[in-house]
Design goal:
- The structure holds 2 protein chains of 2 kinds.
- Chain A is of the alpha+beta class.
- Chain A has 3 domains: 7-205, Aldehyde ferredoxin oxidoreductase, N-terminal domain (Aldehyde Ferredoxin Oxidoreductase,  A, domain 1, 4-Layer Sandwich), CATH 3.60.9.10; 223-427, Aldehyde Ferredoxin Oxidoreductase Protein, subunit A, domain 2 (Orthogonal Bundle), CATH 1.10.569; 437-633, Orthogonal Bundle (Aldehyde Ferredoxin Oxidoreductase Protein, subunit A, domain 3), CATH 1.10.599.
- Chain A is 41% helix and 12% strand.
- Chain A has a 6-stranded mixed sheet with strand order 2-1-6-3-4-5, with helices on both faces.
- In chain A, helix 2 (34-44) runs parallel beside helix 21, helix 12 (329-342) packs parallel to helix 14 and helix 14 (380-392) crosses helix 15.
- Chain B has helices at residues 22-32, 64-68, 95-99, 129-133, 144-168, and strands spanning 8-12, 43-48, 51-55, 74-76, 83-85, 106-107, 114-115, 139-143.
- Classes of the chains: A alpha+beta, B alpha+beta.
- At the A-B interface, helix 7, strand 13 and strand 14 of A face helix 1 and strand 2 of B.
Chain lengths: 637, 169
C-alpha cells in the first residue's frame, strides 16, 4: 500500500496516552481517506448520544491518500471529522494549504483525539514523537499568533499549525479550525470541539518520504493535470475567483439579500467580483503543490480599514455583504480578517449577523439588548462591532449569537425562529433556495446540514439544466449521483475548485488513486465507496437521533416569505408539497424507506451490514411513532 | 571552458512566486525519487500571503560555503558553478550552512551531509526540473547578466511610465 502512511494515531488528552494502529488495505479501499475514513472512525470510536462537547466525543484529523504527494490540490489537504455541536450529527470539513502534507509525512492517515486536557494545551506531532504541550500562554491568541508563537517556541519555521482562536476556546458553535492564516476547517463547528477539549492547536512536522506506487505514471498524470489547470476549466478561479458569482446569482434572483428578505441586491455592483479585483485584489496565491491558484488576497487601500488584508471568496463575501445588506467591500475585507482571527466559520457568522439584523428590524430584539449597536441591515460598522462581540461571547446578544441561529432562536424565543435560516442547525450558504429548488432539496438532505458542497445541487439550477422554480421527479437521482462524487472528492481531499480538470470524471479519479496507492479500483467500485460514505453518514445521524425525514427540511423563511423582488422570481418560495415529492424521489433513488432510513438490504449490499442494527432500531421507532412522524414531516424546521 | 559570467542559476521572481512549493516537490521527485520537501534543494518561503520567494543556490563567484568548509568537502565546478559535495569528506558540521547568505545549503535528513542545487537538467527543456514545473513561471534559469538586464529593463520602464503618468496629471 503506497501513498497511505498505513497508520492511525490515537491520543487521549485526559490521560496523555498515545498509541497507533495500522490502517488495513480493506479499510483504505472502502473509505478512501479524508471524510470517508473519518466518518467511519467517528462511528467506531464514539458511543451513541455522546454530547459534542463531551470529552468522549472524538475529533479526528484525516489526511487523504494523495496528501503529501505532488498531486495538485489533492496533495495538500486534510479533513477534520467529529460530532457537530451545531447539528448533533456528522460534523466534517476540509482545508487545504500546507498543513495536510506534513501530517502525512509525519506518518499518519488519521489522528483520533479523545478526552480533555486538564489545561489549555496543544498537540505536537514530530514524526513518531507525539507530545501534549502547555498551551496556556496561547489563551485567546488569534489563530495567526498561535501559529507564529508555536513555531517560535519549537524553533522551526516549517512546522505547520492548525489552530483555533478565541471563538473556539469559548465554544462558539460555528468556530472553525484554521491553518496557514486563512485556510479553514470552516463548517459544522469543529473549532468548538477542539475548544471543549482544551486543545488550542495541532502542530506537526513531518520529514518522512511519501512514495507512490508508479512514479513514472504518476508524474505523467500530474503533468497532464498541471496542463489542464492552465485553463479553461480553472479560468473562473484564476481570474475573478468565486466572487464572480455575485452578479451571476443576482441576475438569477438567487442572491439572498438581507437574511433572505430579497433575492437581488441593489448594491451588487459594489461588491461584485469585478469590483473586488479591480480595487482590492493585490495578488492571487495558492496552496502547496497546486498547479492553479485561487487565493485572492485583498488589501484595503484607504479609509478606516486601510491595510486590512484577507482572502475573500464568494461565500464569505456574500454572507457578510449582501446577506447583511452591506455594500462596502472595505468593511467586508476587515470583517473577514477578524473572523479568521477569532476562528469562525465565515459563512455561518454572516448568517448569524443577518439573523440578528432581521430580528432587530422586526423589533424582536431591541437596542438595549444589542448593547447600543444599531443593527440595521446595511450598517457596516455594526457588522464589525457585533462580530467582535460574538467572537468574545460578550454581552447578552454576543453570547447568544455564538450558539448559532438555531439555538439562538430557541434562547431568544417568540418569533425569532422565523428568521433563523439553517438546516439541521447549520446556517445556509449563499444561494436563495426559493429560486433554486434543486438546491433546496439537495441542501435539505445534506448530512452535515445546509451545505452546497455535499451534492452540488445548486449547479443544475444555476446552469439552467432544469426548471429551477420547481421540484419534480428526477431531481432525487440527480442529487444522489452527485453526492457520490462529492463524497469521493472529500475523501481523496481533492480541492473542489479543481474538479473541472478531471475531464473523464470517475476514470480520472480512479486512475489518480491507483497510480498513487497501487490499489486497483474501478469507477464502479469508487462510486460505491461514495454511496457507502453517504449511507454511513446517514446512519451516524440516525444513531444520534437526527437522521430521519423530519430533519430533511428547509427553513421557515424559505417556505413562508415569497420573493418580493420584481422579475421572474417574484412570489417564489418552497412549499411542503414539493418538498414531499422531492424527498420521496430522493429516498427512492437511494433505496431508503419513506422515513429516509436505509434498508438492511441496501446496507448489506454496501458492506455496512455491521451497522444495519441502527437502521433496524430506527425503523422500529418510526413504526411505533407513526402518527407523530406524519405530522412532523409537514412541520417547521 | 565556460566563462564565469555564463554560469546559470535558478532564481525566483518575487512578483510571480506564490510560495506553492511545487518546485520543492519536483526537486525531490527528480533528485530523490520521492515526495519530500525536506529533501528538496530549493525551498519556498512564505512570510505572509503577499511575501513569497523560493530560494536555492546562486552558484556565487568565490562561494562562502566552499571557503567555510573545514574538510575541503565542497568544490565549485568550473564550468557550471555548481557546488559539488564530496559525500565521503562531508561530516555534516554545517559551517557552510551558516556561511551561505541565502540559506541555500541544506542538511540531508537521511544522509546527514549537506546538499544543494545541482542544476539537474531536463532532457526536453535543458533547464532544471523546478523551472520546468513552476506553474507561475516564476522560476528562471539565468546568468547574472540576463538577470541584471531584466531588472534594468523593468526599472527603465517604470521610470518612463511614472514620468508619463506625472505628465498626464
Amino acid at each position: 500500500m503506497f501513498a497511505y502512511a498505513g497508520k492511525i494515531l490515537h491520543v487521549n488528552l485526559t490521560t496523555g496516552e498515545t498509541r497507533t494502529e495500522p490502517l488495513s488495505e480493506s479499510m483504505a479501499k472502502s473509505y478512501i481517506g479524508g471524510i470517508g475514513l473519518g466518518i467511519r472512525l467517528l462511528m467506531d470510536n464514539s458511543k451513541p448520544g455522546t454530547d459534542a462537547f463531551h470529552p468522549d466525543n472524538p475529533i479526528i484529523y484525516c489526511t487523504g491518500p494523495l496528501s503529501g504527494t505532488m498531486g495538485p490540490t489533492a496533495g495538500n489537504g486534510y479533513a477534520v471529522v467529529s460530532k457537530s455541536p451545531a447539528t448533533g450529527g456528522v460534523g466534517e470539513a476540509k482545508a487545504h494549504g500546507f498543513f495536510g502534507p506534513d501530517l502525512k509525512r509525519a506518518g499518519y492517515d488519521a489522528v483520533v483525539i479523545t478526552g480533555k486536557a486538564p489545561k489549555l494545551s496543544y498537540l505536537w506531532i514530530d514524526d513518531d514523537k507525539v507530545e501534549i504541550r502547555n498551551g496556556e500562554y496561547l489563551k485567546y491568541a488569534t489563530v495567526n499568533d498561535t501559529d507564529n508563537k508555536i513555531r517560535d517556541e519549537l524553533g522551526d519555521f516549517y512546522i505547520r499549525v492548525s489552530a483555533i482562536g478565541e471563538a473556539g476556546e469559548k465554544l462558539c458553535r460555528f468556530a472553525a479550525i484554521i491553518n496557514d492564516e486563512f485556510r479553514a476547517i470552516g463548517r459544522t463547528g469543529m473549532g468548538a470541539v477542539m475548544g471543549s477539549k482544551n486543545l488550542k492547536a495541532v502542530a506537526v512536522r513531518g520529514t518522512k518520504d511519501v512514495n507512490v506506487a508508479n512514479m513514472e505514471g504518476f508524474k505523467e498524470y500530474i503533468k497532464m493535470i498541471h496542463e489542464r489547470m492552465k485553463g479553461p476549466a480553472t479560468k473562473k478561479y484564476k481570474t475573478l475567483g468565486t466572487p464572480e458569482n455575485v452578479l451571476v446569482l443576482n441576475s438569477l434572483s438567487a442572491l439572498a439579500t438581507r437574511n433572505w428578505t430579497n433575492a437581488t441586491f441593489e448594491g451588487a455592483n459594489k461588491v461584485s467580483g469585478e469590483y473586488l479585483n479591480e480595487h482590492y485584489v493585490k495578488k492571487i496565491v495558492g496552496c502547496a503543490t497546486c498547479g492553479m491558484r485561487c487565493d485572492h488576497i485583498a488589501v484595503v487601500p484607504e479609509g478606516p480599514y486601510k491595510g486590512s488584508t484577507s482572502r475573500l471568496e464568494f461565500e464569505c463575501l456574500w454572507s457578510m455583504g449582501p446577506l447583511c445588506g452591506v455594500d462596502r467591500l472595505d468593511a467586508i475585507i476587515e470583517a473577514m480578517r477578524i473572523v479568521n482571527e477569532y476562528g469562525m466559520d465565515g459563512i455561518s457568522i454572516g448568517v448569524v449577523v443577518a439573523f440578528a439584523m432581521d430580528l432587530y428590524e422586526h423589533g424582536v430584539i431591541t437596542k438595549e439588548q444589542t448593547d447600543g449597536i444599531d443593527l440595521k441591515f446595511g450598517n457596516a460598522e455594526a457588522l464589525i462591532a457585533i462580530i467582535h462581540k460574538i467572537g468574545k461571547r460578550e454581552g447578552w446578544l454576543g453570547n447568544i449569537l455564538a450558539e448559532g441561529v438555531a439555538k439562538a432562536a430557541e434562547l431568544i424565543g417568540g418569533d425569532a425562529y422565523k428568521y433563523a435560516c439553517h438546516i439541521k442547525g447549520l446556517e445556509l450558504p449563499g444561494y436563495d433556495l426559493r429560486t433554486l429548488k434543486t438546491a433546496a432539496l439537495g441542501f435539505s438532505v445534506s448530512f452535515r446540514g445546509a451545505c452546497h458542497l455535499r451534492n452540488g445541487a445548486y449547479s443544475p439550477d444555476v446552469k439552467g439544466k432544469v426548471n429551477r422554480f420547481k421540484i419534480e421527479k428526477g431531481r432525487g437521482k440527480m442529487i444522489t449521483d452527485e453526492s457520490h462524487m462529492y463524497n469521493i472528492i472529500d475523501s481523496l481531499i481533492v480541492c473542489k475548485f479543481s474538479r473541472g480538470t478531471y475531464y473523464d470524471g470517475w476514470k480520472d479519479l480512479t486512475n489518480y488513486y491507483t497510480l498513487a496507492t497501487g490499489i486497483p479500483i474501478t469507477p464502479e467500485e469508487m462510486t460505491q465507496d461514495g454511496d457507502r460514505i453517504e449511507n454511513l453518514a446517514r446512519l451516524f445521524n440516525i444513531r444520534e437521533g437526527k437522521g430521519t425525514r423530519k430533519y430533511d427540511d428547509v427553513p421557515y423563511k424559505i417556505k413562508n416569505f415569497p420573493v418580493p423582488d420584481e422579475g421572474p422570481a417574484k412570489g417564489a418560495c418552497v412549499n411542503d408539497e414539493e418538498m414531499a415529492i422531492g424527498l420521496d424521489d430522493y429516498y427512492a433513488s437511494r433505496g431508503w424507506t419513506a422515513e429516509g432510513i436505509p434498508t438492511v438490504e441496501r446496507l448489506n449490499s454496501l458492506g455496512l451490514g455491521d451497522l444495519a442494527y441502527i437502521a433496524e432500531d430506527a425503523m422500529k421507532a418510526a413504526k411505533e411513532a407513526k402518527p407523530q412522524a406524519a405530522v412532523a414531516t409537514t412541520g417547521g424546521n | 571552458m565556460v566563462r564565469p559570467q555564463d554560469r546559470k542559476f535558478v532564481t525566483a521572481d518575487p512578483d510571480k512566486c506564490i510560495g506553492c512549493c511545487v518546485c520543492e516537490y519536483a526537486c525531490s521527485m527528480v533528485n530523490e525519487k520521492t515526495f519530500n520537501p525536506t529533501k528538496s534543494r530549493i525551498r519556498a518561503m512564505r512570510l505572509g500571503p503577499l511575501i513569497n520567494l523560493a530560494v536555492t543556490c546562486r552558484h556565487c563567484e568565490d562561494p562562502a560555503c566552499v571557503a567555510a568548509c573545514p574538510r575541503d568537502a565542497l568544490k565549485q565546478d568550473d564550468d557550471t558553478g555548481i557546488i559539488r559535495v564530496d559525500e565521503n569528506a562531508c561530516n555534516g558540521c554545517g559551517w557552510c550552512i551558516s556561511a551561505c547568505q541565502f540559506g541555500a545549503m541544506n542538511m540531508h535528513p537521511d544522509k546527514k551531509i549537506v546538499f544543494t542545487c545541482n542544476s539537474c537538467t531536463d532532457n526536453e527543456t535543458k533547464e532544471p526540473q523546478c523551472v520546468k514545473w513552476c506553474p507561475e513561471e516564476a522560476l528562471t534559469y539565468v546568468t547574472a547578466e540576463t538577470l541584471a538586464q531584466k531588472y534594468r529593463q523593468k526599472a527603465v520602464k517604470n521610470l518612463f511610465q511614472t514620468a508619463e503618468e506625472n505628465k498626464a496629471k
